[in-house]
Amino acid sequence: MCTDKLKKQRGNLRQRSLGTLNHMRDIADESRRVEEIARYSPKRLEEIENEFEIQTGLNKTDIIFLFAATALQCVRQYILTGFEERVDDKTAAKKTNSGVEEHSNRTYRWYNPSLNDILLNPVPFDTNFGSPDFNLKLGGGFTHRAKTLGHDPLLGWIFGTANIATGTLTTWDLRSFHIKTGFTKNDFARDKIAYNASTSKVLYYTKNKLLDSGTEGKKIIGASILKEAIHLRSDIGSFASLPIPVVSSISPELSKDIADYGIDMANIAAITKQAAFAMLINALVAMIHKLFYDQTISKTLYEVKTRKILSYSNLIAATSNVIAVAIGTSLGNGTAIRKLDIGGFAVTIYRLIKDFNFIYKVKEEFIFSSFNKLIDGSTQET
C-alpha cells in the first residue's frame, strides 16, 4: 500500500516538474522573441510606419477628389471671391439708389422728421456742411466716416438708424447735432449741421417711435433701418470704404491709420467671403468623400485620407494663386492683385496646422498600438 502511494506521489512530482520545465522553456522562448523584437525595433517601427502610409495613402478615387477639390478652390478664387473694384462715392451710391441724386428738402421738426423727410433726403450723418461752426473737423472721405457713428459697420445699426429716425448726426465722442436744410453761396440746398442735440434724446425718441408710437413710428424705424443698410452697402464699396467696427468710437485717428494699411471693411468683407467659401468647399468635399467609405480600413484612418485631400487641395490652390497673381502683377496687369486669395490662404494655414496635428496623433496611436500588439504576441511578425 505504501509502495503504491509513493509511486503516485512520484508521478505527480514528475508531472509538476515537467510542467515547470515547459513553463520555463516558454518563458525562455518568449524572452528570446521579445529580445529579437527589441533588437530589431527600429526596423519593426519602420515597417509599421510604412504600413500606416500604405493604408492612408490616396488611391484613384481619392486622387479624383483631390483634383476636384483643387479645381473648385481655383474656380472660387478667380470667379467668386476676388476683391471688388473700388469706385468713387457717386458711382457707389448709384448702385444702391437707382442713380437718383438726393437733395436736401427737410421740413424741420425736433427729433421727429416725417417719413417723407426720411425717404427723400440724404442720411443726416453724411452731413459736412456747417461743421466748422461747431469746430467738428469732420473732413471728407474716410475721415468723415471715422468720426460719425452712423458709418460704423456695427454701431451704425444703432446710432445711424437713430440719426435717420431723428434727423440728427452723432460723432464718435457721442455728441449729437440737429440737421436741417441749408443753402450754399450758390443757393444749392444741402443738409447742414445746425444746432446741438442731445444724444440721450436721440436714443429716447428712437425707442419711443419703435415701441410707443404705433404703426407710424414703426414705419419710420423700418425706413430708417433700410436706409442705413442701403447707405452702408453704398459706402463699403467706395474708395474710402468704411472703418473697422467700434475702433472709430475709440479713436478716429487709429481707425484711419489702420485703414491706411488696407484694413477697412471692404477688404475685410472680401477676405471673410474668401474664407467662408473656402471652408464651404472643404466641408462639401469632406462630406461627399466620407460617403465613399468602403470599410477596408478603420474610420479613423479614412479620416486621415479625407484630411490629406483637403490639406493638399488647399495648399495647391493657394500656391498656384500666389504664383498667378505674382506673374500677372509683374506683367503689368493692374487687376491681378484683386484675385489674391488672402482668406483662402488663411484657411489653408489653419487646415495644415489642424490636419497635421490630427494625422500625427493618429499615426502615433497606430504605431504604438501595432508595436504593443507585436510585443505581447497578439500580432504575428512579418
Q: Key features?
A:
mainly alpha, 14 helices, three-stranded antiparallel sheet, 382 residues, single chain, 2 domains
Describe this structure in words.
With 382 residues, the chain is mainly α. The chain folds into two domains: 51-82 and 268-376, no CATH class; 89-240, no CATH class. Helices cover 65% and strands 5% of the residues. The chain contains 14 helices and three strands. The chain has helices spanning 2-39, 41-56, 60-80, 89-94, 115-120, 141-147, 156-166, 199-211, 214-236, 247-250, 252-260, 265-290, 299-330, 342-376, and strands at residues 168-170, 176-183, 189-197. It has a three-stranded antiparallel sheet with strand order 1-2-3. It is elongated and about 130 Å long. The mean pLDDT is 85.
What is shown here, in short?
By secondary structure, the protein is mainly α. About 65% of the residues lie in helices and about 5% in strands.
Q: What is the number of helices?
A: 14
The domain tally reads 2
User: What is the CA-CA span between the terminal residues?
Assistant: 57 Å
What class would the helix/strand composition place it in?
A: mainly alpha
Q: What gross morphology would you assign?
A: elongated
| Largest pleated sheet | 3 strands, antiparallel
Number of strands: 3
User: Stretches where pLDDT falls below 50 for ≥5 residues?
Assistant: none
Helix and strand succession? HHHHHHHEEEHHHHHHH
Average pLDDT confidence is: 85
Strand arrangement across the biggest beta sheet = 1-2-3
Question: What Rg do the Cα atoms give?
Answer: 36 Å
Q: DSSP strand (E) fraction?
A: 5-15%
The helix content is 55-70%
